[in-house]
Amino acid sequence: MAQPIRHDWTRAEVAALFALPFNELLHRAHSVHREHHDPNAVQVSTLLSIKTGGCPEDCAYCPQAARYDTGVQAQKLMSVDAVLERAKAAKNAGASRFCMGAAWRSPKDRDVEKVAEIVRAVKGLGLETCATLGMLNGEQATKLKQAGLDYYNHNLDTAPEFYGEIIHTRQYQDRLDTLEHVREAGLKTCCGGIVGMGETRDQRAGLLQTLANLPEHPESVPINQLVQVEGTPLSGTEAIDPFDFVRTIAVARIMMPASMVRLSAGRQQMDDAVQALCFFAGANSIFYGEKLLTTGNPDVEHDRALFKRLNLHPMEVVEEANTVHADILETDAGSCGHGCGCSAAA
Ligand code: SF4
Question: Function of this protein (predicted)?
Fold first, then answer.
């Protein structure tokens, strides 16, 4: 019998899942996964940074924060034509969803107007659209929905009690408020977090508890592994044990059975065996950044080979659902290194 979708997880229940023997946890997660998903299908999403760097926020993991010296060159919002050109390339590479990220604390109304124009144009190509622009108010979310936006990404990053150690320029409640505006506007949500930032296992449980107890489970749940970037405060943090990362995927799968659990930032640093364990534990989505739009990227070649070795296949397109098909893996397109793990890079 399929597991019921729950929104009332207690911290003790989540902690008990994390504490299960590894094989027991993976067995349970994989069983839940099979009840809701094709265990051999993996969704592929793409991302373009449409406005890079210069962000006033202080997220301790993020190279796009203006206050850290990370070598990221700030770039203004791209023009509609420039984005459209990249979106066409993504479509030609087989993508059916196009995600656009902008490093803002929260966009001004005039920024939203410009992004709405971009969304309309990308939508006109027949692509699904996703955006991550920072905090939104209700009116802005509605404007984007009216322009044809399908998904909005806004990560919770970590547990409520650890949030203040990572970000000081906004509150956890700000994130929850934006998610509410997004849901109320009728947009689908993409929302997850980052592990390996020095949090405890119980704080990892706290992130998943908060995500699963939202009024609706996010359609996509990106679980990022911190990519340590020199110049950011989290550079030098002790790395997470890979098995603890796999545990996080497994617990996410059990708690949010119908969501797409996405391996996102940090995947390129993972070895193949850990990725394979993640797919078994319930990850069924991977993320490419804008390098997908360039050709001959060795990371994509590597992923194609890994898919073959594991007999995985790209997920088929389903109308009005949270899928992206990925002939991408059968093309010469390149893959992503974008992945500061930031909220602007789901
Ligand atoms: S994660 Fe997003 S909000 Fe935080 S500094 Fe980076 S771009 Fe800005």
Answer: Catalyzes the conversion of dethiobiotin (DTB) to biotin by the insertion of a sulfur atom into dethiobiotin via a radical-based mechanism.
Q: What is the rounded distance in angstroms from the CA atom of residue 152 to the CA atom of residue 231?
A: 29
Q: How far is CA 281 from CA 173, 244, 245, 252, in A?
A: 30, 12, 10, 9
Q: Is the CB of 345 under 6 A from ligand 1?
A: no
Chain center to CA of 265? 8
Kindly report, residue by residue over 16-40, the tens digit of the pLDDT.
999 999 999 999 999 999 999 999 9
Rounded to two decimals, what is the model's pTM?
Answer: 0.89
Distance, in Å, from the CA atom of 169 to the CA atom of 162, rounded to the nearest integer, reads 14
With residue 47 as reference, give the H or E element that holds it: strand 41-51
What is the β-pairing status of strands 313-314 and 41-51? parallel
**Hey, is 312 helix, strand or coil?**
coil
135 lines ligand 1 (CB under 6 A): no
Return the CATH fold of 17-330.
TIM Barrel (3.20.20)
At 310-333, the pLDDT tens digits run 999 887 644 433 334 444 443 322
Amino acid at 7: H
| CA-proximal residue: ligand 1, atom 4 (nearest) | 59
Kindly give the distance from the C-alpha atom of residue 343 to the centroid of ligand 1, in angstroms, as a whole number: 6
